[in-house]
Write a structure and sequence with these properties.
The complex is a heterodimer of chains A (about 300) and B (about 260). Helices cover about 35% and strands about 30% of the residues of chain A. Chain A is α/β, with parallel strands linked by helices and about 300 residues long. Chain A folds into two domains: about 220 residues, 3-Layer(aba) Sandwich (Rossmann fold); about 70 residues, Alpha-Beta Plaits (2-Layer Sandwich), CATH 3.30.70. In chain A, the strands form three sheets. A six-stranded mixed beta sheet of chain A has the order 5-6-7-3-8-9, sandwiched between helices. A four-stranded antiparallel beta sheet of chain A has the order 11-12-10-13. In chain A, a hairpin with a 2-residue loop joins strand 11 and strand 12. Chain B is mainly α and about 260 residues long. Chain B has one domain. Helices cover about 75% and strands about 0% of the residues of chain B. The chains are: A alpha/beta (about 300), B mainly alpha (about 260).
């Protein structure tokens, strides 16, 4: 009789908690992921960014063991995520249109707790997610923000090592979104590995230690938010100019350019050098504005360049 | 598990497997009971029909016949609406995927749906027997009640399989209308509402091709309205249906994995 070693939570704290290693996945003729690799470490929030259909959801579904890769290997705590021992180490918040409306907040949480070997106490979950005052309300009567908080509660109730959050703040107002951010920070601080997919780049910037940019199923960039921003130019220069694209691209330290008629947005590492030449070359230059590049600028520039 | 495994494993104890199964069953039952459209139609219709058609035939054979046939009607609708429509909606809303990503024991999900549907059918059966005795003036021996209950329990297996298949295949927008459209004529043709010999000849020809017919024949045999000698054939047909439909559901499920969500 073979003995299966138990999942070693302590060992996982040093190495990556979860890995996607050289993973490929096809759906019919369409390639969703192509030789995609990513490691998730404990205590770290990793954001997965990319346009719609880039393969973010496929990567999440692979980590959750909902689908199997065609090539490469997916592991969570050294196990196949489709095995039940690995699943007890994973919590997920997916985009759910509706949960059973007629069960109460507390009933939903109690049920999900029962799936895990060492869940958090119900009172603790309710307190942490701010659901204590509405624990006896049925799901169908909750507001959008409360529903999202319950789904978040279901993701963390088993005290999992890996938490996958697919668009956790979609449809939330600013205040509710900030609350979820606090919860996510607290998760990472307690040593969990968090994978976050989001459409809000501000969210990735605020939360993620690392950002993985995914396009057409491939990993195109991986780095801290600062590194990603730096790679397109740390500064953004807006102006109206008649200078042709070639001239603007040829200015010192320019990394990319967006152009709509006379409106130009230039990304550059050395804005002073760019400005000196720009003003010298174009006497009619107007509406000049210099600012820090946002992650959104970086994202759009990188996506367009691809 | 041998000793070595026990001494290695203390940090991550095995999940208590029975608890989630019981919780899943309990909450599925609560959810269905709170779903008024479900509990009203599954429990309400057979009882209402019995009061209309069974009570008017006091002490007659029809009052006894309808106890068996309306129990079958309840089992069928409990499974088709509870399991079929239930899975269909949970699939469309993304809830099934979240459950599937969790460590929920796979069997618990199916077991919860089966057990709670069977429980609803049993509730209806008990209520029908009670109505039969009080209003219909019939006698039902404890042995007959027990046999009918057993048929309901075992009969829930093929109808769970059918519900599962419908839940995986049916477009959610079609939902209840489609189930009613199929189930009502099938109920008639299986002798749920009146004995088959009172129906046109062609209905009697197609009836043996319906699993509901075989369930009804088993239930009716309890009160002597169908020959007991056919029991084995009926069970074999229901068993075959279960295997076929669980197989089809499994293939549908496995195929879905290779496609886009």
């Amino acid at each position: 009789m073979s003995v299966t070693p138990p999942v070693d939570v302590r060992a996982a704290a040093h190495g990556p908690l979860a890995t996607l290693n050289d993973v490929s996945k096809r759906f019919g003729k369409r390639t969703a992921l192509e030789r995609f690799s990513l490691q998730l470490r404990g205590g770290e929030v990793t954001a997965l960014l990319g346009p719609n259909g880039a393969g973010k959801t496929t990567a999440v579904r692979l980590l959750l063991g909902l689908i199997a890769p065609d090539g490469g290997c997916v592991q969570v705590l050294g196990r196949d995520p489709r095995s039940s021992s690995a699943r007890t180490a994973i919590g997920a918040m997916l985009q759910v249109a509706r949960a059973p409306d007629l069960l109460t907040v507390r009933e939903h949480i109690e049920l999900f707790r029962s799936y895990y070997p060492r869940p958090l106490e119900t009172a603790e979950i309710l307190r942490r997610t701010g659901l204590l005052s509405i624990e006896h309300q049925r799901f169908g009567t909750l507001s959008g923000g409360q529903k999202q908080r319950l789904l978040f509660a279901l993701a963390i109730c088993g005290d999992p090592q890996l938490v996958c959050l697919d668009e956790p703040t979609v449809g939330l107002d600013i205040q509710a979104r900030r609350q979820v951010w606090e919860h996510i920070r607290a998760l990472a601080a307690s040593g969990k590995a968090v994978l976050l997919t989001t459409h809000y780049l501000e969210e990735a910037d605020a939360l993620a230690e690392r950002i993985a940019l995914i396009e057409h199923g491939r990993l195109t960039r991986l780095g801290t938010p600062a590194e990603i921003k730096r790679s397109v130019g740390a500064r953004r220069i807006r102006c109206r100019t008649r200078l042709p694209d070639e001239v603007l691209r040829g200015l010192p330290s320019v990394t990319s350019l967006e152009r709509h008629g006379e409106n130009a947005v230039i990304f550059a590492h050395d804005p002073q050098a760019v400005l000196r030449q720009l003003l010298a070359l174009d006497a009619t230059l107007s509406d000049l504005e210099v600012g820090a590049a946002s992650l959104e600028d970086a994202f759009l520039t990188l996506i367009h360049a691809a | 598990m041998n000793e070595a495994a026990v001494s290695f494993a203390p940090r991550v104890p095995a999940a208590p497997r029975l608890r989630p199964v019981l919780m899943e069953i309990g909450y599925e039952f609560i959810r269905l009971a709170r779903t008024r459209a479900y509990s009203f139609s599954v429990i309400g219709f057979p009882l209402m029909f019995y009061l209309l058609f069974g009570a008017s035939q006091r002490h007659g054979p029809i009052a006894q016949y309808l106890i068996a046939s309306y129990s079958c009607l309840a089992l069928g609708s409990a499974c088709l609406f509870g399991i079929g429509l239930g899975i269909c909606l949970e699939r469309a809303q993304g809830w099934l995927e979240l459950k599937w990503a969790s460590p929920m024991p796979r069997l618990a999900y199916l077991l919860a749906k089966t057990v709670s549907s069977a429980a609803f059918a049993l509730i209806v059966m008990v209520a029908l027997i009670w109505l039969g005795i009080i209003v219909g003036g019939v006698t039902v021996s404890p042995g007959q009640a027990a046999r009918l209950a057993l048929i309901m329990l075992l009969g829930s297996i093929p109808f769970t399989a059918l519900g599962l298949l419908i839940g995986l295949l049916m477009p959610p927008s079609a939902g209840p209308a489609l189930i009613n459209l199929i189930y009502l004529p099938v109920s008639f043709a299986s002798g749920f509402f009146m004995p088959l010999r009172m129906l046109p000849h062609w209905v009697r020809v197609i009836a043996p091709f319906l699993p509901t017919y075989h369930l009804a024949q088993l239930a009716l045999a309890v009160f002597g309205f169908a020959p007991r000698s056919g029991a084995l054939t009926h069970w074999l047909v229901l068993g075959g249906c279960s295997v076929l439909m669980f197989g089809a559901a499994w293939i549908t499920f496995a195929r879905r994995e290779t496609r886009m969500p």
